[in-house]
Automatic annotation (TrEMBL):
Region spans: Disordered: 61-107, 296-320
Organism: Drosophila melanogaster
BP term (GO), one: tRNA 5'-leader removal
Xref: Pfam families: POP1_N
Protein name according to UniProt: RE46306p
InterPro entries registered for this protein in UniProt: Pop1, Pop1_N
Lineage of origin: Eukaryota, Metazoa, Ecdysozoa, Arthropoda, Hexapoda
């Protein structure tokens, strides 16, 4: 069944007569209000609309931070955006100072630097590594794990052709000071002659060479292995008698097994901590008699906690209790035996250790370190200059220890980054002469070095950094530098 199409225009047979033209002015005037209502409905952000102000902008004008920073929006939308954020509870705070210098004062930076080390200790190179490396938490330290860039080939090329530097300052140092016979008997229980030379071998006692030894639990060799530790003896003065004077041993421990080794040392030498001392109540405790920096923090037990009276404790004695705020700057724990002849001090975070690997490590040291020349240190400066000018550390003894006073390298840093590739001058002393003079020079530098109560020996900390180089491989060297907090600055 077909239906007939009805026309609309009268000219075609329809019923409606259409005008032949349209007046544009009248048409726009009639449609103006409709257009206004349409635009208002599109931009409306009331409860009837689910979009916010910054969501109504064109895509090319949108920014990711617009929801938090009103200044990212055009000026005419900022007030409405602040009103919306205020209703949702995200009102931006306008109480900040506009200048950055008020927020980065030195005291605030140091306070923040200390606060962030409450759980994991930072190395002194942490800021540099944190910008370039992936950081991991290991053994109570925050250590660089791997570079953020693909630098594996660059590291291999540096170690094979130039020089690669690594920060190994997380190694801890333990100082033992006492008679040689007592130290020999104690370490005989922790080591075995079948593993090589012992700690008290004559080749190490002079302080010229650094050694390493395998440590085991007391009387459990070959079981109960702890770790392989390196050690170094402080050279003695020429007039000191080997049997009558105390010897100082510096033991370097990896943090993964440092606590286990420390427990064995305390057990073998029968040491007790200084925190266990008790003083009578009627005795005046003054700062001159007590070294607060040496006392280890102790936690209050139930018997000694305030608020509870302990009737069993004698009224004439009381334990010493001290607390520190951070783990990074705890005082140095110290221990001693019953008769006071042997002392043990933990020198953690007192040294910066850097390992240089590569055929040009010697040239890097020569270009970076400049001997500190004084009248009484002229022979030491000449020896240091000659030792650094050698073509390779293999020309000297293995594990040789050289202590030198050098000028702060930051004072002679080049303006442009360069490589130490130039040819070095012929050293004034040959390798044989250096071997003959090394013992005399090292003794002069380190013989009078007795550890101060605040850090590294005074003889090693005048106003320059101290370096101790050791080459346990033909292409590997290490630098032992005191921490910046323990050295005096230039006036």
């Amino acid at each position: 069944m077909s239906t007939q199409k009805v026309e609309y225009d009268a000219a075609l047979g329809g019923r409606v007569t259409l005008p032949s033209h349209v007046t544009t002015y009248h048409y726009a005037a009639e449609a103006l209000q409709e257009i206004r209502n349409l635009v208002a409905d599109c931009q409306e952000t009331t409860q009837r609309s689910s979009k916010l102000i910054f969501q109504t902008l064109p895509k090319h004008m949108r920014r990711r931070a617009m929801s938090h920073h009103p200044k990212r929006l055009p000026r005419k939308y900022r007030q409405a955006h602040k009103s919306q954020m205020g209703k949702s509870g995200n009102q931006p705070v306008n109480g900040k100072r506009p200048s950055r210098k008020y927020r980065r004062r030195p005291k605030n930076l140091m306070r923040e630097y200390v606060r962030r080390q409450r759980r994991h200790v930072w190395l002194e190179t942490h800021i540099w590594h944190a910008k370039r490396f992936h950081m991991v938490d290991r053994w109570g330290h925050r250590l660089p794990y791997a570079s953020c860039d693909k630098t594996y080939r660059a590291c291999y090329r540096a170690s094979a052709e130039h020089c690669l530097l690594q920060d190994i300052s997380f190694y801890g140092c333990v100082e033992l000071r006492g008679p040689l016979d007592m130290l020999r008997e104690g370490f005989a229980r922790l080591t075995s002659p079948q593993c090589g030379l012992g700690i008290t071998a004559r080749t190490f006692l002079s302080g010229r060479r650094e050694g390493s030894v395998e440590l085991f639990e007391d009387g459990r060799y070959p079981y109960g292995a702890l770790q392989r530790a390196s050690f170094m003896w402080r050279p003695r003065r020429e007039e000191e008698d080997e049997k009558q004077t105390n010897h100082t041993l510096w033991l370097w421990l990896h943090p993964s097994g440092a606590q286990a080794v420390l427990n064995q040392l305390i057990s073998v030498f029968q040491l007790k901590s200084t925190r266990q001392q008790k003083l009578p109540l009627n005795e005046a405790v003054t700062e001159e008699k007590m070294d607060v920096d040496k006392i280890e923090p102790v936690e209050l037990s139930k018997e000694t906690s305030p608020g509870k009276k302990n009737s069993k404790k004698k009224p004439e004695q009381r334990p010493l209790r001290f607390w520190t705020k951070t783990k990074a700057f705890d005082p140095q724990p110290s221990y001693f035996n019953s008769d006071g002849t042997l002392h043990l001090v933990l020198l953690q975070r007192e040294f910066n250790r850097f390992r240089l690997t590569g055929p040009r490590a010697q040239k890097v040291l020569f270009a970076s370190l400049r001997p500190h020349r004084e009248e009484e240190l002229q022979d030491k400066a000449n020896y240091c200059q000659a030792a650094l000018q050698l073509s390779s550390p293999a020309e000297l003894l293995s594990n040789l220890v050289m202590a030198h006073l050098v000028v702060d390298p930051r004072l002679q840093r080049p303006k442009k980054r360069t490589k130490a590739v130039g040819k070095m001058e012929q050293p004034p002393l040959s390798a044989g002469d250096l071997l003959m003079n090394s013992q005399r020079v090292c003794r002069r530098v380190l013989c009078g070095a007795r550890r101060r109560e605040s850090g590294w020996p005074k003889a090693l900390c005048p106003r320059t950094s101290t370096t101790s180089c050791e080459n346990n491989m033909p292409l590997c060297q290490e630098l032992h530098v005191p921490s910046n907090s323990k050295c005096r600055r230039f006036p």
